[in-house]
Design a protein that fits this description.
The complex is a heterotrimer of chains A (about 575), B (about 375) and C (about 140). Helix content of chain A is about 50%, strand content about 5%. By secondary structure, chain A is mostly helical. Helices cover about 45% and strands about 10% of the residues of chain B. Classes of the chains: A mainly alpha (about 575), B alpha/beta (about 375), C alpha/beta (about 140).
């Protein structure tokens, strides 16, 4: 079948003829397909699969032009860099610039991580991606009893401006972009970073980077929350509002499906919940009176890349199209930058198996390929040992090399969106969009995302999907190599990274020293002003910057706001 | 069991009782487990510890699923604790009728109280109707009472007779509702309107809270103005028979009749948002008021006397049931063979077996 | 005497939010007929020990994915033993390297289940332990 763009524009008689020809072609195909179905329908099929995607979507044996005849090429697919961006957010994609090979790092104390960053920068890295430890992710000081045993374990411990200054000591914050995976206390860590830059003499408007700052998915899946949804959304909107005036180069949110998927959702739930969360942030910003075209271009996304190859590619494509359509048609955004969905992607941690861990290298390679065929802007490839421990340097290097092989040896990035026009991929893209729209309507019926969180809707849906998958694996109706099939006696031993326990103690000493030397009155005064601003429902950024400048700690700021906002109560959903 | 006096405790039960009296929380926990499982000698143990029962105020909290009862229970316990009083909590969740297992999740809402000295929380599964839920929970509450807690809070979901009985066994019963559509009607159907000493419209920050409050008040007014009002009130006692000096503690009580001899307690309808603590102080105040009213009118002793009588009946029934089970097992044998060997109609056999019931038939 | 139910505390210590495994296990133990007390995320060892005591559980199952297992398992074990509960099984699961598993088991921790364990396996293990150790308890 010829597509619209490579057909010459015909005259009206020719047009009628052309239409008639295509109608005949389709009718003929329909007849042939019916006969084909009859023959093949009688042929036995394999019984080791039920021919559904990993999310349970049925997949037929064959897709043909009949499956995509509803598509209008220009309106539904279009060109890369143009509405509705199905083929990619940028016009020239990887021909101009390959995706960013972003690797996430951070461990132990700020001092040790600072050394690692300097090492990475010396080898040509231009952006840093900070992994925080669990106490920091939850807004606790390193010396809080809640933090015991966790300081510096899965990332770097940052409890105050002093730690942030150490983290970026000797690293110019006007030239290095900093991505921080932080949500519940995102505003605190953002202020630490801004003031650390200020102390280096870098004005706010020159600071570049990203904070994840996506609290909605925390309630739904990842669970690093602090406050209830309403004040948490207010704080995020404060960040949007303040940043559009004072730090316009900073990406103030990365709306993440990754954690929703990792918690067990299906592809379509990841797609729909994440986009719906995105729309909720847009609505909050607009309700504050912000111009959608002022802040929407700063919104970015973060997808998971799971095992089901074509479903994942279709998910990336459908996501861009849905976002563009809603931003233009529903939220009335005028700038193409507001319509364009830019995304980071990470290969799915949950697909890694502890059994025969070397096989994970292969899984990651296929997933990385899917992300690139889906048109991602940056990619993190997991190391093969991440289901066992934090990765060793050896495992991380293989993960990075996997991306380099993909970029430079396979030829995949040579042409843009090479799977466009595939009957299967286009029809799967359409199907995911349709199902996502259905889910949006369901969430609207519940009263929106916040009401859905409070009633446990998202949590219950994700848990149900996780359970379905687990049941399939246990019943051997879904085969996982090494786990429920093709097992081996005596697993291959691989080297495991061990983090020593000293970070907790040295962080404790640092904090104790800080509490001794800082101006206690200033801390008390600025925290009181912050609490007052929260009570008066003012923008929290200015008083928080002051509290940070006085070296109030993360835990102190968290508690000050908790006294006004309370704490989120976890809904019980199984 | 000896009909006239309790048996002495076995040495191990004696040790347990001694530890209990010495204030060992693990002994309390293990006593409750024995009661739940009806482990041999548990009634002797309850008898031995019975002297200490009667000091605690018992508050029942019930309502439909999702009404926020656990959060409210936690908030009430927190306030009571903050004024220096100690609190035991019994939180009941349903068992699965299919597997007999249960997921007891009420503690998630009570997380802040987990390590609080002076607070003891026990989750209980309803274990089907044969468990005698109201009897077991009462006994668990008795143990907490005897252990020395100032308050015992009993929290159950208000669906089904046995669950409702748990809460209505208390001195004061709080019915918790939420402004979701249809909750008022749900409550009426479930019989919740009749058992309430206090109503709480929880999650009152949501739309519909005022409407639900009005709805409940209207239903109460209808009950008060209709023949229903003359029917015995919820604990089976006719309040109108008891004179009360002093004012009606309910805020908008109907005193148009000007008849001071009617000491009726009209259940107030309070608005709360348990998650933020809003309205909880008022609830605690009203609970104090209700308890005062119970004491002043003599209702407290009367209610407790009736409840003790009811409990005695249940303990008797349980003893008979246990004996019947023993007799039955003896007769039918481990393999169920006897049933085939013995001829006769069910009535004839049952009558013959009934004669074996009585002293000595229990271990 | 009514049926003696196995009571299990499924607890999620530490600050990570990965409760998928804990919830799947809690549901599967319930389906195996046990009474499961679930307390939610971010439990401190002190909370876990206090809950185990008040609920008089037979088994404490901990799910730890944050890498803090060498701190948290021994802390919980000691606190529970200090409370006089030396007949309680402490088991669990998470991402725990084999050498750490061996070290923890030497301290008295029970079996530890790694990623990819079938959910029924834990229930069977607990039932067998219970039959061997607790089934006919007297106090």
């Amino acid at each position: 079948m010829s597509s619209v763009i490579d057909t010459e524009v015909p005259g009206s008689a020719d047009l009628e003829q052309e239409v008639e020809r295509r109608r005949r072609e389709l009718a003929e195909l329909e007849a042939k397909l019916a006969a084909w179905n009859e023959t093949t329908g009688a042929t036995a099929q394999r019984d080791d699969t039920d021919f559904t995607t990993v999310s349970g979507q049925p997949v037929r044996a064959l897709y043909t032009p009949l499956d995509t005849q509803g598509d209008d090429y220009i309106a539904d697919v279009g060109l890369p860099g143009e509405y509705p961006f199905t083929r990619g957010p940028y016009a020239t994609m990887y021909r101009t610039r390959l995706w960013t090979k972003r690797l996430f790092s951070g461990f132990a104390t700020a001092e040790e991580t600072n050394e690692r960053y300097k090492f990475l920068l010396a080898r040509g890295t231009t952006g840093l991606s900070v992994a925080f430890d669990f106490p920091t992710l939850m807004g606790y000081d390193s010396d809080d009893p809640m933090s015991e045993g966790e300081v510096g374990k899965c990332g770097v411990a940052i409890a105050s401006l002093a730690d942030m200054e150490t983290l970026f000591d000797g690293i110019p914050l006007d030239r290095v972009s900093v991505s921080m995976t932080i949500n519940g206390p995102a505003i605190m860590l953002y202020c630490f970073l801004l003031v650390a830059a200020e102390k280096q003499g870098v004005p706010f408007e020159k600071v570049t980077g990203t904070i994840q700052n996506d609290i909605l998915k925390e309630y739904q899946a990842q669970h690093a929350w602090i406050y209830p949804p309403k004040p948490a959304l207010k704080i995020i909107t404060d960040v949007f509002e303040w940043s559009s005036a004072h730090a316009p180069k900073f990406n103030t949110i990365s709306i993440s499906g990754y954690h929703i998927r990792e918690a067990g959702s299906t592809a379509v739930e990841e797609l729909a919940f994440t986009l719906k969360n995105g729309f909720t942030y847009v609505e909050e910003g607009m309700a504050r009176g912000l111009d959608v075209d002022e802040f929407a271009p700063r919104l970015s996304f973060f997808w998971d890349v799971h095992n089901d190859f074509f479903e994942e590619i279709a998910k990336f494509r459908a996501g861009r199209r849905i976002w563009a359509r809603h931003m233009r048609e529903i939220y009335g955004a005028k700038r193409p930058e507001s319509w364009r969905l830019r995304t980071h992607a990470q290969t799915a941690g949950v697909t890694l198996t502890a059994q025969q861990p070397h096989n994970n290298i292969v899984r990651v390679a296929y997933q990385g390929l899917a992300a690139v065929l889906g048109g991602t802007q940056s990619l993190h490839t997991n190391a093969m040992d991440e289901t066992l421990a934090l990765p060793t340097e050896h495992a991380v290097r293989i993960a990075l090399r996997t991306q380099q092989i993909l970029a430079f040896e396979t030829g995949v990035p040579n042409t843009i969106d090479p799977l466009a026009g595939s009957y299967f991929v286009e029809s799967m893209t359409d199907e995911l969009e349709r199902q996502a729209e259905e889910m949006f309507a369901e969430i609207d019926d519940l009263g929106g995302v916040v009401a859905g969180i409070e009633s446990g809707y998202f949590q219950a849906r994700i848990a149900r999907s996780a359970r379905r998958f687990q049941d399939e694996v246990e019943a051997n109706s879904r085969l996982i190599v090494g786990l429920n099939s093709f097992q081996e006696e005596g697993e291959a031993d691989i080297e495991i990274l061990k983090i020593d326990e000293s970070a907790g103690e040295s962080q404790g000493r640092r904090l104790a020293a800080l509490r001794q030397t800082r101006d206690a009155d200033a801390v008390e005064r600025t925290l009181a002003a912050l609490t007052e601003a929260a009570r008066a429902d003012e923008n929290l950024m200015p008083p928080m910057l002051d509290a940070v400048r006085s070296y109030a700690t993360l835990g102190e700021i968290r508690s000050a706001l908790e006294s006004v906002y309370g704490r989120f109560q976890e809904p019980v959903a199984f | 069991m000896d009909e006239t006096s309790a048996r002495p405790l076995t040495p191990s039960l004696q040790r347990l009782a001694d530890r209990f009296r010495a204030g060992d929380s693990l002994a309390l926990a293990r006593c409750i487990t024995r009661v739940e499982n009806q482990t041999g000698g548990f009634e002797d143990l309850l008898h031995a510890l019975h002297d200490g029962v009667g000091r605690a105020r018992r508050i029942g909290l019930t309502g439909p699923p999702g009404a926020g009862k656990s959060t409210l229970t936690a908030a009430v316990a927190r306030l009571l604790r903050d004024r220096g009083e100690t609190v035991g909590i019994v939180a009941v969740d349903p068992s699965s009728p299919f597997t007999g297992g249960a997921l007891l999740g009420d503690r998630v809402r009570m997380d802040d109280l987990a390590t609080e000295p002076g607070i003891f929380i026990r989750s209980m599964a309803s274990r089907g109707s044969h468990g005698g839920l109201a009897t077991t929970t009462r006994e668990a509450a008795d143990l907490m009472d005897a252990f020395g807690f100032d308050h015992v809070l009993l929290e159950t979901v208000g669906v089904g007779q046995s669950e409702l009985e748990v809460a209505t066994n208390a001195d004061s019963t709080v019915v918790v509702l939420v402004p979701e559509s249809g909750d008022g009607i749900q409550a009426m159907k479930a019989g919740l309107m009749e058992v309430a000493d206090l109503f709480v419209v929880n999650k009152a920050d949501r739309p519909g809270a005022d409407r639900l409050k009005k709805e409940i008040e209207v239903v109460q007014a209808i009950r008060a103005g209709s023949p229903m009002a003359a029917a015995p009130a919820h604990h089976g006692v006719d309040f109108t028979a008891i004179a009360l000096a002093g004012s009606n503690p309910a805020d908008d009580g109907d005193d148009s009749g000007g008849a001071p001899q009617i000491p009726d307690w009209e259940a107030p309808v309070l608005k709360c948002t348990a998650s933020t603590g809003e309205g909880v102080a008022e609830l605690v105040e009203r609970l104090d008021g209700h308890f005062e009213w119970l004491e002043k009118t003599g209702m407290l002793d009367e209610q407790r006397r009736l409840a003790a009588i009811e409990h005695t009946r249940r303990v008797l029934e349980r003893a008979v049931q246990r004996q019947a089970a023993t007799v039955w097992t003896e007769w039918i044998g481990d393999d169920g063979q006897s049933a085939d060997q013995v001829a006769g109609s069910p009535y004839e056999i049952a009558r013959r077996l009934a004669r074996r019931l009585g002293p000595g038939s229990e271990n | 005497m009514v049926e003696r139910k196995i009571r299990v505390l499924v607890a999620k210590p530490g600050l990570d939010g990965h409760d998928r495994g804990a919830k799947v296990i809690a549901a599967s133990l319930r389906d195996a007929g046990m009474e499961v007390i679930y307390t939610g995320l971010h439990q401190t060892p002190e909370k876990i020990a206090a809950t185990a005591l008040q609920e008089d559980v037979d088994v404490v199952a901990l799910s730890i994915l944050s890498g803090a297992h060498m701190t948290l398992f021994p802390r919980v074990l000691n606190l529970i033993r200090e409370n006089g509960m030396d007949d309680v099984l402490i088991t669990g699961g998470g991402i725990i390297p084999q050498e750490d598993v061996e070290e923890l088991q030497a301290l008295g921790i029970g079996r530890l289940f790694g990623p990819g364990t079938a959910t029924g396996e834990a229930a069977t293990y607990i039932q067998e332990w219970f039959l061997a150790n607790r089934a006919d308890d007297e106090v």
